[in-house]
Specification:
By secondary structure, this protein is an alpha+beta fold. It has two helices and six strands; from the N terminus they run E-H-E-E-E-E-E-H.
């Protein structure tokens, strides 16, 4: 499993975090889904590599995971890709930008 994983401190309470996250994901076109037993935010279908972001909250800390699935055919995906490397670099760059923006909003 190749994911971008980061824990960072926050001064916001869980309700504030979820309000900010819901607003951010809605504006960015993500939908909340249950993906293989994980509650995540997902964007993309078809030939584009779907983007995923997962948030977990603890007092004073946000745990964030972000990854892409590799698209073989529309709707047929395999493996996970983190935000590094040349494969799917354009989508990785967009996801990395979203992750950085969300992190800034939640700190």
């Amino acid at each position: 499993m190749a994911r971008y994983i980061k824990d960072f401190p926050t001064t916001k309470n869980p309700e504030e975090i979820m309000k900010i996250a819901n607003d951010f994901f809605s504006k960015e076109g993500f939908n909340r889904v249950n993906f293989k037993g994980e509650d995540v935010w997902k964007k993309g279908v078809g030939f584009t590599s779907p983007q995923f972001i997962k948030l977990q909250l603890a007092p004073g800390v946000v745990h964030m995971e972000a990854w892409l699935k590799f698209a073989w055919f529309p709707g047929i995906y395999s493996g996970e890709m983190d935000l590094n490397g040349a494969m799917a670099f354009a989508i990785k760059k967009m996801l990395a930008s979203r992750v950085n923006t969300l992190e800034s909003l939640l700190k």
